[in-house]
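LAB NOTEBOOK - FOLDING QUEUE
OPERATOR: T.R.
BATCH SIZE: 2
PURPOSE: Compare the predicted structure-token outputs for two unrelated chains run back to back under identical settings.
PRIORITY: normal
REVIEWER: second-year student, initials M.K.

ITEM 1
FIELD SEQUENCE / FIELD STRUCTURE:
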Amino acid sequence: MANVLTVVAKLSAKPGRGDELAAILAEQVAAVVKAEPDCLVYRLHRSKKNPDLFLFYEQYRSDAAFDAHRKGPHLAAFRERRDPLVAGPPEVEFYLSSTD
């Protein structure tokens, strides 16, 4: 599928808070999968080396689909619960597919 927007985001928990953050992020994944049909992939990964480090691999049909994701009301509650557990803002990179 051409022109799919891929987002890779790294998020670090405050030291020792990885398990708490993992639980919230798992709930967030379920909410996104349920509420966002134009989100093609929303996969959470946890570092084997550092259990307080997480990576999201996300794919959206379009920039508009990602914008809807960022502004989704279902994510606001997760951000409120998540933010006290994170060490800082996520590192986010954007990629655009160029082939089918």
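ITEM 2
FIELD SEQUENCE / FIELD STRUCTURE:
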Amino acid sequence: MRICVIGAGYVGLATAVMFGKLGHRVACADIDDRRVRDVSSGRAPFYEPPLENELAKLVKSGMISASKDVVAPSAESKFIFVCVQTPSLSTGKIDISALKAASRDVARAIARTNDYKIVVVKSTVVPSTTDTIVRQILEAGSGKTAGKDFGLCMNPEFLQEGSALKDSMEPSRIVVGSSDKRAGDALMRLYAPIKADRFRTDLRTAEMIKYASNAFLAAKITYANEVANICRRLGIDSEDVLTAAGKDPRIGPLFLTPGLGFGGSCLPKDVRALRYKARRLDYPAYLLTAILKVNESQPNEAVDILKDVFGDLKGLKVAVLGLSFKGGVDDVRDTRAVPLVAGLLANGVDVIAFDPMAMSHFIELMPTIRFASSADEALSGVDACVVQADWPEFRKIGRKQFSKMRNPVVIDGRRCLDPGKVETAGARYYGVGYGPASSE
């Protein structure tokens, strides 16, 4: 089968590699020159080694190719997967300009041939986008009719950055929304080798499933953070509380680790977009608003802990370890490191920052702070450090590094360190949701 994947970001490249591994020839189309060059050379445009390793093999074997041309590979393919980004606007509404542009290119491809093609939207879009905007563009640009001359499906992704390929090959579920049975049946057959629970829906339901999933994950993280914040003020270790709570099968243990808030390309954007859509329907979306409010203030927990320890923070030197939105990725979209650093600077703190992979991206966001070339350098001479992203190498920091600190104080913003090991290595440990703290 010939497949075209439009967009060589996380979703597009993971989709391309998955279908390449299943034996299909995949053409990746992207308007970005650098991404096309990277993919053509077998390199991923982002940090994800397992995905890149498989990509290199498939490019070398000729199963995956890349091009800036969207129309030609779309015209030659049976399935056309649209995987372009839909970032947030300042209002929370999603920006679908890239989706519209891709749809116009696909419409031109459909117009070139009499073959029945299946257009699959994998980009995250609010309900009613595929069956109105995308459909209208495809029909107007091709002169053909959806459900008759070509198929239209909505196939949401449920990937986590850092494990995109694994999540593609071993998904928790496969959701196919379609405008007609023929298109839905064909897409389900394409996924036949993948073992997972399957759901057939209409287009809007498929779009909503994605938002319902991400909104719940955001709510669960926010719940864990809220409980942890209260626990710290009571002098209670929230780890015991949340671990026990997670044993309830109605709650479950996943996404119950407290931290400095959620970031990345999906959860913040999707919660904002769903709230915007709800408000346009005259529904206030109180829970979604609360989730965003707690998440925005959560990085202040690290600042508050520092104040508990030191009092006045003016003139303090603090290292921030981890600048990506989570460990294992180089993505700084909505990273909590930005409000964390901003909060430290507002209190007169001298900040030095380090991340194993995301440094170049973060420098574009906050170019005026100091950066270190290693964790060792970042810790030298500082009064405290805040672990903002859970990179595995930070768990190995010990006595040698702590001895270089002027005041060996560690604020664990991701609860990824062992408090006992930190204390044994000569540093004072404090964490989100971890005492000691003043209480009444």
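REVIEWER COMMENT (ITEM 2): DSSP finds 18 helices and 14 strands in the chain.
FOLLOW-UP: none requested
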